[in-house]
């Protein structure tokens, strides 16, 4: 039982890091990415390969994984951030599909479908950490670090610039903000921090393959952010915990037909999400409906004179 | 002559003041529509210019061309002699041209204080190494909030403000931006008489402090009250450009403006 809870704790920590880093671009920059699992995967593969060939020290694996994921995220950010929001979603979906193919076909590096096995445990200043009782505090500590780092960023001038761009891109650039550069930096930061979750994951399971880094994972992480509360501090953690605890809780409900538990879980997810979005569109931690209603993207547009319409449409 | 025009006249040297922005033969076509056609004018330091004209005359399009939000179809734009046509909006903004929007475009989810603070931080780095210190920035934000009567609303989100307060926040933002040229798109529309007086006072103070202003305005009281010069646009063409009296007393222009189009 204790092992079960510790295992859950580790997974919640890892997925919380993913949700926090996705929330950083979704909630504060308004960038909706369906490729977050790619950077989770890049972090995991990089961490695993470095640990197997160079060093399993967390101070080696994590920085290298962060740099690799950050650099690769430029492949998404540079071309895609020049287009409008909805196109970015499509571009990120494309990257996700592409990455899954690479993960499963580049056999010499990723081990193909079979994945990488025998990843050494993480090394923290000489101590090998593999037992869940030791790994859980480590993952929790990393989660706290990532949470603090993103909070500091959100409340820095950079965070204000991000929010300003999300609220009104044209006004932000009218006040000197280099919108593509700021968005690109935010995507790189998000990807690099997501890679940390990947490194932890690889060490913890000692085995990784492409199945952990598919579109399903990207969608799951996005669901965690939305359910918990986009643009809130605690929301992503709440969302991650809830979505990972739900399967376990359901299996304790003995009145449910246990053979159908998978289907029941999907129905509960679907219904829960729909109901939540109707009554609490800001997520569990977000603002209540009454407040959320008063925040359309640009409430003044109806007051606009026709003269400025073609101007905006032509941009 | 009004107070502001008088102060401008007093501060003005004998020869015409320096040209900040030189617009020559500016063109903008949307498909077959000529939104701006062959417009030439100079915006000179310290001079308050008001753009008037019916809806659809191309006034906002002209602003969008100056700020780089739209790319011109022809003609030239020079800021202090430097060609700025084709520059990105953020680079033009950094040269010292700031604007407000007719639809305000506040940073709705941010507080009043954050709205003002963020325009003082154009850099992309998370923590700026140069520029004003955090304390200096806070002091300036406070000063701007006091002048625009927003000090009590410092921690209110922009979206939750009343209409007039939103208008003043849009002004506060531009006041904090330290720009040399302000392009104001209908800044006074919808203000009650009290707020309107406050707005006029603020604008006069800023002009006296050296800001050059170009306003799009329909309210003729404002137009006459604070303008040194009026530019009359209709269907993308600049029909007149001169002293307020001469433009407003031109029967042909007033006929266009008030809708008695022949």
Give a verbal description of the structure.
The complex is a heterodimer of chains A (315) and B (262). By secondary structure, chain A is mainly α. Chain A contains 14 helices and four strands. In chain A, the strands form two sheets. In chain A, strands 1-4 form a two-stranded antiparallel sheet. A two-stranded antiparallel sheet of chain A has the order 2-3. In chain A, a hairpin with a 2-residue loop joins strand 2 and strand 3. The radius of gyration of chain A is 20 Å and the shape is globular. In chain B, a hairpin with a 2-residue loop joins strand 4 and strand 5. In chain B, 37% of the residues lie in helices and 24% in strands. With 262 residues, chain B is α/β, with parallel strands linked by helices. The longest helix of chain B has 16 residues. Chain B has two domains: 156 residues, Rossmann fold, CATH 3.40.50; 75 residues, no CATH class. In chain B, helix 4 crosses helix 5, helix 4 packs parallel to helix 6 and helix 5 crosses helix 6. The interface between A and B is large, with 43 and 52 residues.
Question: Which key phrases capture this entry?
Answer:
heterodimer, A: 315 residues, mainly alpha, two-stranded antiparallel sheet, two-stranded antiparallel ribbon, 14 helices, 3% strand, globular, disordered C terminus, B: 262 residues, alpha/beta, Rossmann fold, six-stranded mixed beta sheet, four-stranded antiparallel beta sheet, 10 helices, disordered N terminus, ABC_transp_permease (chain A), transmembrane (chain A), branched-chain amino acid transmembrane transporter activity (chain A), cell membrane (chain A)
> SSE order of chain B in H/E notation?
HEEEHEEHEHHHEHEHEEHH
For the sheet with most strands of chain A, the description reads: 2 strands, antiparallel
Estimate the helix proportion of chain A, in percent: over 70%
Total discrete domains of chain B: 2
CATH fold name of the largest domain in chain B: Rossmann fold
Task: Report the C-alpha radius of gyration of chain B, rounded.
Answer: 18 Å
Query: In one word, what is the shape of chain B?
Result: globular
Find the CATH superfamily of the largest domain in chain B.
Answer: P-loop containing nucleotide triphosphate hydrolases
Average pLDDT confidence of chain A is 86
As laid out across the biggest beta sheet of chain B, the strand order is 6-7-8-3-9-10
Protein name (chain B): Amino acid/amide ABC transporter ATP-binding protein 1 (HAAT family)
GO molecular function (chain B): ATP binding; ATP hydrolysis activity; L-isoleucine transmembrane transporter activity; L-phenylalanine transmembrane transporter activity; L-valine transmembrane transporter activity
Keywords (chain B): ATP-binding, Nucleotide-binding, Transport
GO biological process, one term (chain B): L-valine import across plasma membrane
